[in-house]
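From the shared-data thread, chain only:
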Amino acid sequence: MYIILRKCRLIALLIFSFQLLAGPKEDTKFLVDRILGTAVTPTKFQEVENLITSGQRKQAALILTNHPDFYNVTLRSHFIQRATEESNKYYPLNDYTATLIGMVRDDIPYNQVLSADILYIGAGNLGLPAYSQTDNNHYQQMEDNAVDLSDPSKLIRTTQSSIPGSNLPASATAGVITTRQSAKAFFSAGTNRAMIRFMFLNYLCRDLEAVHDISRPLTMVRQDVSRNYPFTQDCAGCHAGMDGIAGAYAYYEWDEETNQIQYTSGQVQPKYHINDNVFKKGYVTSDDRWINFWRVGQNSSLGWRATGGGISMNSDYGYSFGNGAKSLGREIAGTRAFSSCAVKQVYKRVCLKTDKQLSSNDLTSIENIATSFEGSNYNFKNMWADVAVSCMN
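Structure, as tokens:
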């Protein structure tokens, strides 16, 4: 035991000594490794090192966020797993991922990611297949040709509603939620509850078990959910809140025959009425209204703050409500949990820590950076630089 303790002390001393000896060159290597994960030219390395030497650590980090590999390697890897239920990190480039990358590159406020009429596609002069509502060939060819996603002349911004063949009016677009890939992954089959679950996972860092609350009203729980025991102690905790907001997607479907998103304005998709004999007194979806019962109770801790933009409040009970995917996206992205989640995801990636490894100091840093993130109008590159400097310290 004595020998083991001596070895542990020696290792700790070596780590501490390395930290004391770390200088601008080591700090530069840290930033390059954690922001790009690839090598840079000697000239770029020296530029970053000079900034660190002069005390401009954040500026050094920001310069690296303008490097092509930040978009083509780091952000692609960071965002790609959100595009599938399986969190497949080897999934091909697609409109969901490309749009996230483009928004970061162009400093589009990140809190628009669930509500904007936005889409990023390859430029027309690249010889790519045209963007298609029915396949992913456009983005697959971009990947095969190694198109530089950091170049605004190659990855260009447009709108979902203006793309040929789109059946989405601008009012029905909701950022990455209504991209083709998102529909394929989360509107396919089922009852559109999957979209709620994965939106919470990807943008609030919480699975449904984390928001389970059996005290919420059962007003919006659909007919396909049994009310038999253990409903009141188990299923109700998720369905009361989830079914309340899932109505926002009542007009959306993934068409398996045509391989494209379907939007039927004013007409509820049949999937919302399947298994209606399980509990006939349950809620019958008649439009795309949503009610957020999680604004009240234990989940008020998510920090719901959004107002306007299609979001209204029930002054008597404290719930929010609205119609459609766009206003729900604003509701979700307006939370403090949304900001903290974005920072936490980057923090774990840059600082190489799992959830269990995050200390109280780490969590404090995350919240402080989340405040700065909101103060910078949700500038994702600025936030990434803040995280990198925090981890370097």
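The beta strands are 119-122, 155-158, 252-255, 260-263, 289-292, 312-313, 320-323.
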